[in-house]
Known about the structure:
Blueprint: E1 2-4, H1 7-18, H2 23-37, E2 47-54, E3 59-64, H3 95-106, H4 111-124, E4 126-127, H5 130-138, H6 140-144, H7 147-153, E5 166-167, H8 170-182, H9 186-189, H10 191-203, H11 209-213, E6 219-221, E7 224-228, E8 231-235, H12 242-252, H13 265-284, H14 294-301, H15 303-315, E9 334-340, E10 346-352, E11 401-405, E12 408-414, H16 420-433, H17 439-444, E13 448-450, E14 455-458, H18 465-473, E15 477-480, E16 492-495, E17 505-508, E18 515-517
Parallel strand pairs: 14-15
Antiparallel strand pairs: 1-9, 1-18, 2-3, 2-10, 3-6, 4-5, 7-8, 8-11, 9-10, 11-12, 12-16, 13-14, 16-17
Helix pairs in contact: 1-2, 1-4, 2-3, 2-4, 4-8, 12-13, 12-15, 12-16, 13-15, 13-18
Amino acid sequence: MVSTASGPATRAGVEMLEKGGNAIDAAVAAAFCLGVSEPQASGLGGQSMALVHLHEEGRTFALDGSSRAPYVLSPQKNPQKPIKFGLRSSTVPSTPAALGYLHENYGRLSFEEVLAPSIRAARDGVEITALIHRMIKKEAEHLRKDPLAAKRYLDSRKRPLKEGDLLVQPELSALFSRLAEEGWRDFYTGGTGRKIAEDMKRRGGLLTNVDLEQIPIPVERDVLESTYRDVDIVTYPPPGAGRVLVQILNTLEGFDPQSLKADEPTGAVIQALAFRFALNYRQRMPMHPDHYSQSMTQMMVDKSYAEEITRRINEIYNQALSDTFVPPPTSGETTHLSVVDKDGNAVGITQSIELVFGSKTMADGLGFFYNNYMSAFEYKDRTHPYYLLPGGRPWSSVAPVLLMKRGRPLYLLGSPGSSRISTALAQVITRLVDQDETLAEAIAAPRFHSSDDGDLLIEADRFPKEVIDALKLSSFQLKRRGAYSFYLGCVQGVQMPRGWRGRFEGVADPRRDGTAEGPGVH
Protein backbone atom coordinates (compact mmCIF):
# COMPACT_ATOMS: atom_id res chain seq x y z
CA MET A 1 0.00 0.00 0.00
CA VAL A 2 1.29 3.44 -0.98
CA SER A 3 0.02 6.78 0.34
CA THR A 4 1.54 10.03 -0.94
CA ALA A 5 0.54 13.64 -1.48
CA SER A 6 0.41 13.26 -5.28
CA GLY A 7 -1.26 10.81 -7.65
CA PRO A 8 1.73 10.30 -9.99
CA ALA A 9 3.99 9.56 -7.02
CA THR A 10 1.52 7.07 -5.56
CA ARG A 11 1.30 5.28 -8.91
CA ALA A 12 5.10 5.21 -9.14
CA GLY A 13 5.25 3.38 -5.82
CA VAL A 14 2.47 0.97 -6.75
CA GLU A 15 4.24 0.19 -10.02
CA MET A 16 7.29 -0.97 -8.06
CA LEU A 17 5.18 -3.26 -5.86
CA GLU A 18 3.51 -4.73 -8.94
CA LYS A 19 6.96 -5.43 -10.42
CA GLY A 20 7.87 -7.46 -7.34
CA GLY A 21 9.73 -4.70 -5.55
CA ASN A 22 9.60 -4.18 -1.80
CA ALA A 23 8.52 -1.21 0.30
CA ILE A 24 11.94 0.39 -0.11
CA ASP A 25 11.76 0.28 -3.91
CA ALA A 26 8.24 1.70 -3.83
CA ALA A 27 9.07 4.44 -1.33
CA VAL A 28 12.19 5.54 -3.22
CA ALA A 29 10.34 5.59 -6.56
CA ALA A 30 7.49 7.60 -5.03
CA ALA A 31 9.90 10.01 -3.30
CA PHE A 32 11.80 10.75 -6.51
CA CYS A 33 8.50 11.22 -8.38
CA LEU A 34 7.21 13.68 -5.77
CA GLY A 35 9.99 15.99 -6.94
CA VAL A 36 8.35 15.93 -10.37
CA SER A 37 4.69 16.20 -9.43
CA GLU A 38 5.08 18.36 -6.28
CA PRO A 39 8.13 20.47 -7.20
CA GLN A 40 7.19 23.23 -4.78
CA ALA A 41 7.66 20.86 -1.83
CA SER A 42 10.62 18.57 -2.54
CA GLY A 43 13.02 17.37 -5.19
CA LEU A 44 16.58 16.45 -6.05
CA GLY A 45 17.76 19.76 -4.61
CA GLY A 46 16.45 19.05 -1.11
CA GLN A 47 16.79 16.58 1.74
CA SER A 48 14.99 13.34 2.67
CA MET A 49 14.55 11.67 6.07
CA ALA A 50 13.15 8.17 6.49
CA LEU A 51 11.75 5.85 9.14
CA VAL A 52 12.37 2.26 8.04
CA HIS A 53 10.98 -0.98 9.47
CA LEU A 54 12.48 -4.23 8.14
CA HIS A 55 10.12 -7.02 9.14
CA GLU A 56 12.36 -10.04 8.56
CA GLU A 57 15.23 -8.48 10.49
CA GLY A 58 12.92 -7.20 13.21
CA ARG A 59 14.71 -3.86 12.97
CA THR A 60 13.52 -0.27 12.79
CA PHE A 61 15.87 2.65 12.19
CA ALA A 62 15.81 6.33 11.31
CA LEU A 63 17.72 7.33 8.18
CA ASP A 64 19.13 10.81 8.76
CA GLY A 65 19.41 12.27 5.29
CA SER A 66 20.26 15.79 6.41
CA SER A 67 21.77 18.19 3.93
CA ARG A 68 25.06 19.94 4.74
CA ALA A 69 26.11 23.57 4.99
CA PRO A 70 28.85 24.69 2.57
CA TYR A 71 32.43 24.26 3.78
CA VAL A 72 33.35 27.79 2.73
CA LEU A 73 31.58 29.11 5.83
CA SER A 74 33.26 30.14 9.07
CA PRO A 75 32.00 31.89 12.23
CA GLN A 76 34.03 34.96 11.28
CA LYS A 77 32.46 35.19 7.82
CA ASN A 78 28.91 34.09 8.59
CA PRO A 79 26.06 36.49 7.77
CA GLN A 80 24.17 37.89 10.75
CA LYS A 81 20.74 36.75 9.63
CA PRO A 82 19.36 33.79 7.69
CA ILE A 83 19.82 33.68 3.93
CA LYS A 84 16.34 32.87 2.62
CA PHE A 85 16.44 33.11 -1.17
CA GLY A 86 18.78 32.62 -4.10
CA LEU A 87 21.73 30.32 -4.68
CA ARG A 88 23.48 31.37 -1.48
CA SER A 89 20.58 29.97 0.56
CA SER A 90 21.23 26.38 -0.55
CA THR A 91 22.92 23.63 1.41
CA VAL A 92 24.39 20.53 -0.26
CA PRO A 93 21.34 18.60 -1.55
CA SER A 94 21.06 15.22 0.13
CA THR A 95 17.92 13.70 -1.40
CA PRO A 96 19.85 11.81 -4.13
CA ALA A 97 22.26 10.41 -1.53
CA ALA A 98 19.57 9.47 0.99
CA LEU A 99 17.25 7.80 -1.51
CA GLY A 100 20.16 6.26 -3.39
CA TYR A 101 21.60 4.80 -0.19
CA LEU A 102 18.23 3.44 0.88
CA HIS A 103 17.66 1.71 -2.45
CA GLU A 104 21.24 0.49 -2.79
CA ASN A 105 21.24 -1.18 0.61
CA TYR A 106 17.66 -2.37 1.01
CA GLY A 107 15.93 -2.29 -2.39
CA ARG A 108 15.24 -5.23 -4.68
CA LEU A 109 14.71 -3.75 -8.15
CA SER A 110 17.27 -2.02 -10.36
CA PHE A 111 17.86 1.71 -10.02
CA GLU A 112 16.72 2.14 -13.63
CA GLU A 113 13.35 0.57 -12.78
CA VAL A 114 12.94 2.76 -9.71
CA LEU A 115 13.63 5.97 -11.66
CA ALA A 116 11.53 5.05 -14.71
CA PRO A 117 8.26 6.64 -13.44
CA SER A 118 10.05 9.93 -12.69
CA ILE A 119 11.65 9.97 -16.13
CA ARG A 120 8.26 9.47 -17.78
CA ALA A 121 6.41 11.97 -15.57
CA ALA A 122 8.96 14.72 -16.17
CA ARG A 123 9.15 13.98 -19.91
CA ASP A 124 5.43 13.62 -20.61
CA GLY A 125 4.27 16.21 -18.11
CA VAL A 126 2.14 16.32 -14.97
CA GLU A 127 -1.08 18.26 -14.60
CA ILE A 128 -1.06 21.46 -12.58
CA THR A 129 -3.50 20.99 -9.70
CA ALA A 130 -5.46 23.74 -7.98
CA LEU A 131 -3.06 23.59 -5.02
CA ILE A 132 0.10 23.88 -7.13
CA HIS A 133 -1.47 26.72 -9.13
CA ARG A 134 -2.05 28.58 -5.84
CA MET A 135 1.56 27.97 -4.83
CA ILE A 136 2.90 29.24 -8.17
CA LYS A 137 0.62 32.27 -7.96
CA LYS A 138 1.73 32.98 -4.40
CA GLU A 139 5.43 32.81 -5.34
CA ALA A 140 5.15 34.31 -8.85
CA GLU A 141 7.05 37.46 -7.90
CA HIS A 142 10.05 35.37 -6.81
CA LEU A 143 9.80 32.94 -9.73
CA ARG A 144 9.84 35.80 -12.25
CA LYS A 145 13.29 36.77 -10.97
CA ASP A 146 14.78 33.45 -12.08
CA PRO A 147 14.56 33.00 -15.88
CA LEU A 148 14.84 29.22 -15.51
CA ALA A 149 11.89 29.02 -13.12
CA ALA A 150 9.87 31.53 -15.14
CA LYS A 151 10.34 29.43 -18.27
CA ARG A 152 8.77 26.36 -16.67
CA TYR A 153 6.20 27.74 -14.22
CA LEU A 154 4.93 30.88 -15.94
CA ASP A 155 3.33 31.23 -19.36
CA SER A 156 4.56 33.39 -22.23
CA ARG A 157 3.00 36.45 -20.56
CA LYS A 158 4.73 35.67 -17.24
CA ARG A 159 1.48 34.52 -15.63
CA PRO A 160 1.31 31.43 -13.37
CA LEU A 161 0.43 28.15 -15.06
CA LYS A 162 -3.25 27.42 -14.54
CA GLU A 163 -5.01 24.43 -13.07
CA GLY A 164 -5.15 21.78 -15.78
CA ASP A 165 -2.05 23.03 -17.63
CA LEU A 166 0.68 20.48 -18.31
CA LEU A 167 4.01 20.96 -16.55
CA VAL A 168 6.66 19.42 -18.81
CA GLN A 169 10.21 19.22 -17.40
CA PRO A 170 12.61 17.97 -20.11
CA GLU A 171 15.79 18.96 -18.24
CA LEU A 172 14.67 17.06 -15.15
CA SER A 173 13.73 14.02 -17.24
CA ALA A 174 17.18 14.06 -18.84
CA LEU A 175 18.81 14.30 -15.40
CA PHE A 176 16.86 11.32 -14.09
CA SER A 177 17.86 9.37 -17.21
CA ARG A 178 21.50 10.20 -16.57
CA LEU A 179 21.27 9.13 -12.91
CA ALA A 180 19.58 5.89 -13.99
CA GLU A 181 22.51 5.19 -16.30
CA GLU A 182 25.41 6.53 -14.22
CA GLY A 183 24.08 5.97 -10.69
CA TRP A 184 23.07 8.45 -8.00
CA ARG A 185 26.69 9.35 -7.15
CA ASP A 186 26.91 11.17 -10.48
CA PHE A 187 24.94 13.93 -8.78
CA TYR A 188 27.96 14.59 -6.57
CA THR A 189 31.15 13.28 -8.18
CA GLY A 190 30.26 12.97 -11.87
CA GLY A 191 29.10 15.18 -14.69
CA THR A 192 26.00 16.34 -12.83
CA GLY A 193 28.06 17.42 -9.84
CA ARG A 194 30.38 19.41 -12.09
CA LYS A 195 27.38 21.17 -13.66
CA ILE A 196 26.06 22.12 -10.23
CA ALA A 197 29.45 23.45 -9.10
CA GLU A 198 29.83 25.45 -12.32
CA ASP A 199 26.30 26.83 -11.98
CA MET A 200 26.99 27.92 -8.40
CA LYS A 201 30.29 29.56 -9.33
CA ARG A 202 28.87 31.37 -12.35
CA ARG A 203 25.83 32.75 -10.49
CA GLY A 204 27.37 33.52 -7.11
CA GLY A 205 26.34 30.49 -5.04
CA LEU A 206 28.31 29.06 -2.12
CA LEU A 207 28.51 25.36 -3.02
CA THR A 208 31.69 24.07 -4.65
CA ASN A 209 32.86 20.78 -6.12
CA VAL A 210 34.50 20.06 -2.73
CA ASP A 211 31.12 20.32 -0.99
CA LEU A 212 29.54 17.95 -3.49
CA GLU A 213 32.40 15.44 -3.52
CA GLN A 214 32.06 15.14 0.25
CA ILE A 215 28.86 13.20 -0.43
CA PRO A 216 26.25 13.71 2.34
CA ILE A 217 25.90 9.99 3.01
CA PRO A 218 22.91 9.43 5.33
CA VAL A 219 23.31 8.05 8.84
CA GLU A 220 21.28 5.19 10.30
CA ARG A 221 20.22 6.30 13.79
CA ASP A 222 18.44 4.56 16.64
CA VAL A 223 14.76 5.39 16.79
CA LEU A 224 13.01 7.12 19.67
CA GLU A 225 10.66 4.73 21.48
CA SER A 226 7.79 5.35 23.87
CA THR A 227 4.20 4.26 24.49
CA TYR A 228 0.76 5.84 24.36
CA ARG A 229 -1.84 3.92 26.38
CA ASP A 230 -1.32 0.33 25.19
CA VAL A 231 0.33 1.25 21.88
CA ASP A 232 4.08 1.40 21.23
CA ILE A 233 5.33 4.59 19.57
CA VAL A 234 8.42 4.43 17.34
CA THR A 235 9.51 7.76 15.87
CA TYR A 236 12.34 9.98 14.68
CA PRO A 237 15.26 11.13 16.89
CA PRO A 238 17.20 14.43 16.60
CA PRO A 239 17.77 16.23 14.28
CA GLY A 240 14.08 15.41 13.74
CA ALA A 241 11.24 16.26 16.09
CA GLY A 242 9.89 12.90 17.15
CA ARG A 243 10.59 13.89 20.75
CA VAL A 244 8.02 16.67 20.44
CA LEU A 245 5.41 14.16 19.33
CA VAL A 246 6.33 11.83 22.20
CA GLN A 247 6.14 14.62 24.77
CA ILE A 248 2.70 15.65 23.51
CA LEU A 249 1.43 12.06 23.72
CA ASN A 250 2.96 11.51 27.16
CA THR A 251 1.22 14.64 28.39
CA LEU A 252 -2.15 13.69 26.91
CA GLU A 253 -1.84 10.22 28.42
CA GLY A 254 -2.28 11.84 31.82
CA PHE A 255 -5.87 12.70 30.96
CA ASP A 256 -8.88 10.45 30.62
CA PRO A 257 -9.44 9.54 26.93
CA GLN A 258 -12.99 10.87 27.02
CA SER A 259 -11.71 14.29 28.11
CA LEU A 260 -9.58 14.61 24.96
CA LYS A 261 -12.32 14.96 22.38
CA ALA A 262 -11.20 17.93 20.29
CA ASP A 263 -14.77 18.83 19.33
CA GLU A 264 -15.48 19.59 22.99
CA PRO A 265 -14.08 22.62 24.89
CA THR A 266 -12.11 20.68 27.51
CA GLY A 267 -10.42 18.37 25.02
CA ALA A 268 -9.49 21.17 22.64
CA VAL A 269 -7.94 23.32 25.37
CA ILE A 270 -5.99 20.41 26.89
CA GLN A 271 -4.55 19.46 23.52
CA ALA A 272 -3.72 23.05 22.60
CA LEU A 273 -1.82 23.54 25.87
CA ALA A 274 0.01 20.24 25.46
CA PHE A 275 1.11 21.29 21.97
CA ARG A 276 2.30 24.65 23.24
CA PHE A 277 4.31 23.20 26.13
CA ALA A 278 6.07 20.69 23.89
CA LEU A 279 6.96 23.17 21.15
CA ASN A 280 8.07 25.76 23.68
CA TYR A 281 10.38 23.26 25.32
CA ARG A 282 11.87 22.15 22.01
CA GLN A 283 12.76 25.73 21.14
CA ARG A 284 14.37 26.30 24.53
CA MET A 285 16.21 22.96 24.58
CA PRO A 286 17.37 22.19 21.01
CA MET A 287 19.19 18.87 20.59
CA HIS A 288 21.71 17.90 17.91
CA PRO A 289 22.32 14.23 17.06
CA ASP A 290 26.10 14.59 17.34
CA HIS A 291 26.36 16.37 20.67
CA TYR A 292 23.19 16.27 22.73
CA SER A 293 22.86 14.89 26.23
CA GLN A 294 21.10 11.53 26.20
CA SER A 295 19.62 12.36 29.59
CA MET A 296 17.87 15.40 28.13
CA THR A 297 16.17 13.29 25.47
CA GLN A 298 15.16 10.77 28.11
CA MET A 299 13.62 13.56 30.16
CA MET A 300 11.48 14.63 27.24
CA VAL A 301 10.14 11.10 26.73
CA ASP A 302 9.96 10.26 30.44
CA LYS A 303 6.44 9.72 31.81
CA SER A 304 7.20 11.44 35.12
CA TYR A 305 8.27 14.60 33.28
CA ALA A 306 4.99 14.49 31.36
CA GLU A 307 3.10 14.17 34.66
CA GLU A 308 4.55 17.53 35.70
CA ILE A 309 3.34 19.09 32.44
CA THR A 310 -0.09 17.53 32.97
CA ARG A 311 -0.23 19.05 36.46
CA ARG A 312 0.68 22.48 35.10
CA ILE A 313 -1.98 22.24 32.39
CA ASN A 314 -4.56 21.52 35.05
CA GLU A 315 -3.36 24.55 37.02
CA ILE A 316 -3.50 27.01 34.12
CA TYR A 317 -6.54 25.64 32.33
CA ASN A 318 -8.01 29.14 31.93
CA GLN A 319 -4.80 31.17 32.01
CA ALA A 320 -2.17 32.18 29.50
CA LEU A 321 0.98 30.11 29.28
CA SER A 322 3.98 32.31 30.06
CA ASP A 323 6.67 32.25 27.41
CA THR A 324 10.39 32.20 27.91
CA PHE A 325 11.28 32.04 24.25
CA VAL A 326 9.51 33.19 21.11
CA PRO A 327 11.04 31.86 17.88
CA PRO A 328 10.39 33.22 14.41
CA PRO A 329 7.31 31.72 12.74
CA THR A 330 7.93 28.71 10.53
CA SER A 331 6.21 28.17 7.22
CA GLY A 332 8.17 25.43 5.53
CA GLU A 333 6.84 23.37 2.64
CA THR A 334 7.41 19.65 2.89
CA THR A 335 5.89 16.38 1.73
CA HIS A 336 5.49 12.89 3.16
CA LEU A 337 4.81 9.38 1.92
CA SER A 338 4.03 6.09 3.67
CA VAL A 339 4.58 2.65 2.11
CA VAL A 340 4.03 -0.88 3.44
CA ASP A 341 4.57 -4.09 1.46
CA LYS A 342 3.03 -7.56 1.76
CA ASP A 343 6.05 -8.80 3.72
CA GLY A 344 5.50 -6.25 6.49
CA ASN A 345 8.31 -3.86 5.57
CA ALA A 346 7.36 -0.22 6.15
CA VAL A 347 8.95 3.04 5.01
CA GLY A 348 7.92 6.60 5.84
CA ILE A 349 9.81 9.38 4.07
CA THR A 350 9.49 13.08 4.86
CA GLN A 351 11.36 15.33 2.45
CA SER A 352 11.58 18.99 1.60
CA ILE A 353 13.36 21.85 -0.11
CA GLU A 354 12.48 23.94 3.01
CA LEU A 355 10.26 26.87 1.93
CA VAL A 356 7.80 26.77 -0.98
CA PHE A 357 9.96 26.32 -4.10
CA GLY A 358 13.01 26.35 -1.83
CA SER A 359 15.49 29.03 -2.86
CA LYS A 360 13.13 30.06 -5.72
CA THR A 361 16.10 29.35 -8.00
CA MET A 362 16.48 26.41 -10.39
CA ALA A 363 19.64 24.54 -11.35
CA ASP A 364 20.71 25.57 -14.83
CA GLY A 365 20.05 22.78 -17.32
CA LEU A 366 19.09 20.28 -14.62
CA GLY A 367 15.46 21.15 -13.91
CA PHE A 368 15.24 21.11 -10.11
CA PHE A 369 14.96 23.82 -7.46
CA TYR A 370 17.84 24.32 -5.05
CA ASN A 371 16.76 24.18 -1.40
CA ASN A 372 17.02 27.09 1.02
CA TYR A 373 18.03 25.17 4.16
CA MET A 374 20.56 27.86 5.01
CA SER A 375 17.55 29.55 6.62
CA ALA A 376 17.20 26.62 9.06
CA PHE A 377 20.35 27.35 11.09
CA GLU A 378 21.03 29.55 14.11
CA TYR A 379 23.02 32.62 13.06
CA LYS A 380 23.80 34.48 16.30
CA ASP A 381 24.12 32.20 19.32
CA ARG A 382 27.37 30.23 18.93
CA THR A 383 26.39 27.91 21.78
CA HIS A 384 23.28 26.76 19.91
CA PRO A 385 23.63 23.16 18.62
CA TYR A 386 22.42 24.27 15.20
CA TYR A 387 24.70 27.29 14.89
CA LEU A 388 25.80 27.65 11.28
CA LEU A 389 29.12 25.86 10.83
CA PRO A 390 30.90 24.38 7.79
CA GLY A 391 29.31 21.04 6.93
CA GLY A 392 26.64 21.49 9.62
CA ARG A 393 23.21 19.83 9.56
CA PRO A 394 20.11 22.05 9.65
CA TRP A 395 17.39 21.74 12.25
CA SER A 396 14.41 19.63 11.18
CA SER A 397 10.80 19.10 12.29
CA VAL A 398 10.21 15.69 10.69
CA ALA A 399 8.50 13.05 12.85
CA PRO A 400 7.41 9.98 10.87
CA VAL A 401 5.93 7.48 13.33
CA LEU A 402 5.14 3.79 13.52
CA LEU A 403 2.44 2.60 15.93
CA MET A 404 2.93 -0.98 17.10
CA LYS A 405 1.41 -3.46 19.53
CA ARG A 406 3.22 -6.54 20.82
CA GLY A 407 5.84 -6.13 18.12
CA ARG A 408 3.35 -5.90 15.25
CA PRO A 409 3.03 -2.67 13.24
CA LEU A 410 -0.45 -1.15 13.34
CA TYR A 411 -0.12 2.19 11.55
CA LEU A 412 2.57 4.07 9.63
CA LEU A 413 2.00 7.84 9.69
CA GLY A 414 3.80 10.98 8.66
CA SER A 415 3.13 14.56 7.65
CA PRO A 416 4.71 17.70 6.24
CA GLY A 417 4.17 21.06 7.89
CA SER A 418 7.27 22.25 9.77
CA SER A 419 6.36 22.78 13.45
CA ARG A 420 2.83 21.64 12.65
CA ILE A 421 3.98 18.08 11.87
CA SER A 422 3.98 16.84 15.47
CA THR A 423 0.66 18.45 16.36
CA ALA A 424 -1.06 17.06 13.25
CA LEU A 425 0.22 13.56 14.00
CA ALA A 426 -0.71 13.78 17.68
CA GLN A 427 -4.30 14.65 16.78
CA VAL A 428 -4.56 11.70 14.41
CA ILE A 429 -3.04 9.32 16.97
CA THR A 430 -5.34 10.38 19.80
CA ARG A 431 -8.36 9.91 17.55
CA LEU A 432 -7.16 6.43 16.56
CA VAL A 433 -6.29 5.28 20.07
CA ASP A 434 -8.66 7.22 22.34
CA GLN A 435 -11.71 7.74 20.16
CA ASP A 436 -11.50 4.49 18.15
CA GLU A 437 -11.91 6.33 14.87
CA THR A 438 -10.99 4.81 11.52
CA LEU A 439 -7.80 5.99 9.85
CA ALA A 440 -9.81 7.91 7.25
CA GLU A 441 -11.92 9.60 9.95
CA ALA A 442 -8.89 10.52 12.06
CA ILE A 443 -6.99 12.06 9.15
CA ALA A 444 -9.95 14.00 7.74
CA ALA A 445 -11.10 15.29 11.16
CA PRO A 446 -10.98 19.04 11.99
CA ARG A 447 -7.50 20.16 12.99
CA PHE A 448 -5.72 22.98 14.78
CA HIS A 449 -2.19 23.90 15.82
CA SER A 450 -1.07 25.94 18.81
CA SER A 451 2.38 27.46 18.52
CA ASP A 452 4.70 28.21 21.39
CA ASP A 453 4.01 31.96 21.15
CA GLY A 454 0.27 31.69 21.79
CA ASP A 455 -1.06 31.75 18.23
CA LEU A 456 -3.60 29.05 17.44
CA LEU A 457 -4.27 28.20 13.81
CA ILE A 458 -7.59 26.45 13.40
CA GLU A 459 -10.01 25.22 10.75
CA ALA A 460 -12.51 27.41 12.57
CA ASP A 461 -15.62 26.65 10.54
CA ARG A 462 -15.28 22.94 11.36
CA PHE A 463 -15.33 23.36 15.15
CA PRO A 464 -18.33 24.12 17.40
CA LYS A 465 -18.66 27.69 18.67
CA GLU A 466 -18.15 26.57 22.28
CA VAL A 467 -14.72 25.17 21.34
CA ILE A 468 -13.70 28.44 19.70
CA ASP A 469 -14.88 30.39 22.75
CA ALA A 470 -13.00 28.11 25.17
CA LEU A 471 -9.75 28.49 23.24
CA LYS A 472 -10.11 32.27 23.27
CA LEU A 473 -10.78 32.24 27.02
CA SER A 474 -7.58 30.24 27.46
CA SER A 475 -5.62 33.20 26.06
CA PHE A 476 -4.88 31.75 22.63
CA GLN A 477 -4.80 34.19 19.72
CA LEU A 478 -6.91 32.45 17.09
CA LYS A 479 -5.93 32.64 13.43
CA ARG A 480 -8.62 31.21 11.23
CA ARG A 481 -7.80 28.85 8.38
CA GLY A 482 -10.18 27.45 5.80
CA ALA A 483 -11.66 23.98 5.97
CA TYR A 484 -9.12 21.25 5.21
CA SER A 485 -6.24 23.74 5.24
CA PHE A 486 -3.06 22.29 3.73
CA TYR A 487 -1.13 24.53 6.13
CA LEU A 488 -2.16 22.30 9.06
CA GLY A 489 -0.29 19.23 7.89
CA CYS A 490 -1.04 16.53 5.34
CA VAL A 491 -0.99 13.13 7.03
CA GLN A 492 -0.27 10.15 4.79
CA GLY A 493 -1.12 6.91 6.56
CA VAL A 494 -1.22 3.15 6.10
CA GLN A 495 -3.03 0.72 8.39
CA MET A 496 -1.67 -2.82 8.52
CA PRO A 497 -3.95 -5.86 8.21
CA ARG A 498 -5.68 -6.99 11.40
CA GLY A 499 -5.34 -10.78 11.39
CA TRP A 500 -4.57 -13.20 8.57
CA ARG A 501 -7.57 -12.22 6.45
CA GLY A 502 -7.18 -8.50 6.98
CA ARG A 503 -6.42 -5.91 4.32
CA PHE A 504 -4.09 -2.96 4.07
CA GLU A 505 -5.78 0.41 4.19
CA GLY A 506 -4.11 3.51 2.85
CA VAL A 507 -5.38 7.04 3.43
CA ALA A 508 -4.22 10.29 1.86
CA ASP A 509 -5.06 13.53 3.63
CA PRO A 510 -7.79 15.46 1.76
CA ARG A 511 -5.89 18.67 2.55
CA ARG A 512 -3.66 18.13 -0.52
CA ASP A 513 -3.69 16.27 -3.83
CA GLY A 514 -2.75 12.89 -2.40
CA THR A 515 -3.92 9.39 -3.19
CA ALA A 516 -3.49 5.97 -1.61
CA GLU A 517 -3.33 2.81 -3.71
CA GLY A 518 -2.11 -0.75 -3.59
CA PRO A 519 -1.24 -3.30 -6.28
CA GLY A 520 -4.38 -4.18 -8.20
CA VAL A 521 -6.36 -1.42 -6.44
CA HIS A 522 -6.64 1.65 -8.68
